[in-house]
Amino acid sequence: MSLLRVLVVAAIVAVSALPAHAQISDNVIKIGVLNDQSSLYADLAGQGSVVAARMAVEDFGADKKGMKVEIVSADHQNKPDVGSSITRQWIDVDKVDVIVDVPNSGVALAVNQIVRDKGKAFLVSGAATADLTGKACSPNTIHWTYDTWALANGTGNAIVKTGGDTWFFLTADYAFGHALERDTEAVVTKAGGKVIGKVRHPLNTQDFSSFLLQAQASKAKIIGLANAGGDTTNAIKQAAEFGIVRGGQNLAGLLVFITDVHALGLDKAQGLILTETFYWDSNDRTRAFAKRFAERNRQIYPTMVHAGVYSSVLHYLKAVEALKSDDGTRVIAKMKEMPTDDPLFGKGSIRVDGRKIHPAYLFEVKKPSESKGTWDYYKLRSTIPADQAFRPLDQGDCPLVKK
Amino acid sequence: MTAIPIQALMGQLLIGLINGAFYAMLSLGLAVIFGLLNIINFTHGAQYMLGAFVAYFALQWAGLGYWWALLLAPVLVGLFGIVLERTMLKPLYQLDHLYGLLLTFGVALIVQGLFRNAFGSSGLPYAMPAALTGGYNLGFMFLPTYRAWVIVFSLVVCLSTWYVIERTRLGSYLRAATENPGLVQAFGINVPRMITLTYGFGVALAALAGVLAAPIYQVNPLMGADLIIVVFAVVVIGGMGSIIGSIVTGFALGVVEGLTKVFYPEASNTVIFVIMALVLLVRPAGLFGQER
């Protein structure tokens, strides 16, 4: 009994010795990286995002600062129900404080609601739908890397300006594809172009020939690919087979990641115009990061999704440190208050609707003869300044924005 | 899409047939294995994927092109199948179907997992053989040469397989061995060896389909996992174990799926399962199957 009593007293002393406001729940900051680890989005996010989160924790110096940070990860299999139950389990049972990444807009929208209900934090990098900072915006969510509006604004605008004024969409049939199609259509129409047809294909389609034939028959100048990952690469590969580009039509990959270009090979991908907010070969700091990252990620270079995970986790930890609390709602508020600064995206800020603001870049995929080696794939066409890269605050219908 | 011109429809029918060619080749291998060995071969998708990877490795490491791959992949992957049959499947013949299914499913997960770990999920590029690039303008559509090749090649393979099993002496031994292995063995025929070779042949068909697929789709560790469920539905609709059933159903469902992609694309990856459910309600043994 005396031993027990000693322990109880020791515990009371230990607890009361803590500073009154230090509220790191159970003394551990637990980061949950939730994404596709086994299917068509696994290379552009997947384990690479876990590596990126780990690097952020190390570079932040959590150990030296005496902050205990743990990272867990899981595969949501691109299913909103699976993603939701993992999120609930993480928050309720495993005491996860912040959910990170979550490509697949369908899953992200579901997680967004749960995290909000539970008062935790959600840092989105992989998901694209601009609804996350629009009608579904939340005081517990920050959308870091890119969104459908930014893609449409970048790639869509550039293509309409060079004469691509009639469009046919191949759209992935779920929240992401619909949002990307909607935002691109708005850009095309506003610039005086016309959408003359669209077809919605199921996520993770192998054969696009039937859809490509429909696109070919439409005689649209531009075939807009409102899909991502393996769907985009398959569509581009098969479009070449059906002589789409030789027939005078052009492809617009509205969301193309560097891993997709790598998978296609430059001979198939050359000339594609795409919008990204991060490219590893932009400056010395991004190159240094990419080299370190690739060593730990099977020599796969970082996508903008990986970069976004790194930067958002870094900024999150800074906010937790400043606040001395990991209360989700308060940390997100603090993150919005503090200016952002990191090696990958430079200086930036986070808006009240949760939108992280930084420049976007319009790239063109190099010809095989222009590339100096593996992963040397993009040349910069133009930079879209931070204040023009994302949807203006008053146009998103986010309830957090005071009118 | 309300009014579809007849020409566009012709194009879509042809595309459906081409995709059906893949279903037919894969479901044929499954049907041979099930019909003659009573094994539900869930590694079929992984073996299809291995076929595509053999083509990729042959090109990258040995500089051997597509035509060599058409020969090498079925042989190598078929050998892999034979080893699998000899070491793991053989002890399971006396047990319920379920054990074979679980074993082959487990092997498929392991093989796919290893490849995904090594090669990622985006897939690897495989160029079309130079002789088969380009295409023909048929008036109603542009038909890539390679797709025409796929349909011809798979028809030849499917019909020869059907002929060998249903119309030759070797085929009759095979069919007899599945009905009554003891009796056939009594006539001096090495039944276990025949069964092993049959499994190897079924697997080789999957690998061959994998090589055919490599230039069209990405060479991807998950390419088989995505396809195998559909192919199983094809086999069920055709009638488990029916050779001609799997061929006809494969092509027919390719066409049905192709038409769905025009009229209601959102349902294109579920239409086959809807048909499967309907067929099972009306004819539980499948369209060409016989009730046992």
Fold and architecture overview:
The complex is a heterodimer of chains A (403) and B (292). By secondary structure, chain A is α/β, with parallel strands linked by helices. Chain A contains 14 helices and 15 strands. Chain A has helices at residues 2-17, 46-60, 80-92, 105-118, 148-161, 175-190, 209-218, 229-241, 258-264, 266-269, 284-296, 304-323, 328-337, 386-389; strands at 29-35, 69-75, 98-101, 121-124, 141-143, 166-172, 194-201, 222-226, 250-253, 273-276, 340-342, 346-350, 356-357, 360-365, 378-384. In chain A, strands 2-1-3-4-5 form a five-stranded parallel beta sheet, with helices on both faces. In chain A, helix 3 runs parallel beside helix 4 and helix 12 crosses helix 13. The N and C termini of chain A lie far apart (64 Å). With 292 residues, chain B is mainly alpha-helical. In chain B, helix 1 (6-37) packs across helix 9, helix 5 crosses helix 6 (169-179) and helix 9 (223-238) crosses helix 10.
Which key terms come to mind for this protein?
heterodimer; A: 403 residues; alpha/beta; 5-stranded parallel β-sheet; B: 292 residues; two-stranded antiparallel sheet; 2 strands; globular
Mean pLDDT of chain B: 90
Instruction: List segments of chain B where confidence is low: pLDDT < 50 over at least 5 consecutive residues.
Output: none
* Oligomeric state of this protein: heterodimer
Order of helices and strands of chain B: HHHHEEHHHHHHH
> Largest sheet of chain A, if any?
5 strands, parallel
SS field, number of helical segments of chain B = 11
Quick one: biggest sheet of chain B? 2 strands, antiparallel
Q: Sum up the overall morphology of chain A in one term.
A: globular
